[in-house]
Amino acid sequence: MIEASLPIGVFDSGMGGLTVLKELQSAMPAESFIYLGDSARLPYGNKSAHTVQQYALQASSELVSRGVKALVVACNTASAAALPQLTEQFAPLPVFGVIEPGARIAAQAAAQGSVLVLATEGTVMDGAYQRALLATNPKLKIHARACPLWVTLAEQGYASDTPESVTITEALLSHAVRGFQTSHLTVLLGCTHFPIFRDKLRTHLKAGVKIVDSAQTTAQQVAYALGRVAGRVGDKNHGQIKFLATDGVERFQRVGAYFFGQAIEAAELVVL
Ligand code: DGL
User: Fold this and answer.
1) Is any atom of ligand 1 closer than 6 Å to the C-beta of 204?
2) Whose CA is nearest to atom 2 of ligand 1?
3) How far apart are CA 161 and CA 169, in angstroms?
4) 1 lies in a domain?
5) Who's near 229: CB < 8 A, 6+ residues apart?
6) Ligand 1 centre from 9 Cα, in Å?
7) E runs forming strands in the chain
8) 92 and 108 share a domain?
9) What's the 122 CA to ligand 1 centre distance in angstroms?
10) What predicted TM-score, i.e. pTM, was given to this entire model?
11) Same domain, 56 and 106
12) Is residue 29 reached through a cis peptide bond, with omega within 30 degrees of 0 on the bond before it?
């Protein structure tokens, strides 16, 4: 029997998953969370599936050993490479990934049109988004592009509006959607870092293009699955959040605040 008062464990390769934590917190404000960012081994996006599976298992084991009532794999690359293994390893603990919720909403939004998945190299090569999209709607035309530089850009603060950021960022955003100048398109942001670029990306797309974000849809699915509908939780107190990082806690707090949208007062260093 899993104790309802336990926190929800959230794991990512680093700070980007804080975009998912932000949505989880907003969907379930009374829940407590424990977030582990594997900052020592970031990025996962260009590593082999085997290595990502090992890392994901170690990080998840750390969270499970601390006591959690559910596990959210906020990292798209780790969800693509390791979700089946994690689900099996930790059963009956509920384990959620970000691929299926994002793909389902994007497939619905696209109707009979095209979906462009933007993600890391590992996620694109794995094909998990492509499979999940087709499982919802076999008639979709699916395209996928790896945008590995966006991860570095986001972490270096290049989503801001300084002249240097604008030149570099706009060039990369424009490159990612080159050849997709149609309004019959849904863009699926399949990486933790990419919601940061949502508004800028929109300016490179035709009017009417839908942009779907895995972070929001995952939070909705987790809230629904755990039976906690936003604003209707019994406990009026705000839940607690504990942060763990495997390297550079100062950088984790500083850069993480940018993704989380609020200050991170403390983070604990853990060795996996
Ligand atoms: N968290 C990763 C993802 O969502 C992006 C960063 C990385 O490559 O580790 O795919």
Assistant:
1) no
2) 75
3) 10
4) no
5) 223
6) 17
7) 8-12, 33-37, 70-73, 95-96, 114-119, 141-146, 185-190, 210-213, 241-245, 268-269
8) no
9) 9
10) 0.94
11) no
12) no
Same domain, 233 and 137: no
Task: Evaluate whether residue 93 is within a structural domain.
Answer: yes
Active site residues: 75, 191
CA of 194 to the centre of ligand 1 (A): 10
272 residues of the chain, pLDDT tens digit each: 567 789 999 999 999 999 999 999 999 988 999 999 999 999 999 999 999 999 999 999 999 999 999 999 999 999 999 999 999 999 999 999 999 999 999 999 998 789 999 999 999 999 999 999 999 999 999 999 999 999 999 988 888 777 777 788 999 999 999 999 989 999 999 999 999 999 999 999 999 999 998 898 899 999 999 886 544 454 555 689 999 999 999 999 999 999 999 999 999 999 99
Q: How far away, in angstroms, is 236 Cα from ligand 1 center? A: 34
Residue 47: CB within 6 Å of ligand 1? no
What CATH number does the domain containing 35 carry?
Answer: 3.40.50.1860
Give me the percent of the chain exceeding a pLDDT of 90: 82
Residues 199 and 215: their CA atoms lie apart, in Å, by 15
Which residue's CA lies nearest to atom 6 of ligand 1? 43
Domain that holds residue 206: 99-214
Tally DSSP H helices, then E strands, for the chain: 11, 10
DSSP letter at 41 equals: T
How many domains does the chain fold into?
Answer: 2
**pLDDT digit string, tens, across residues 133-142:** 999 999 999 9
Atom of ligand 1 nearest to the CA of 12: 1
Does the beta carbon of 195 sit less than 6 angstroms from any atom of ligand 1? Answer: no
Question: Which two structure tokens, joined as six digits, stand for 65?
Answer: 């050993």
193 lines ligand 1 (CB under 6 A): yes
Residue 3 lies in a domain: no
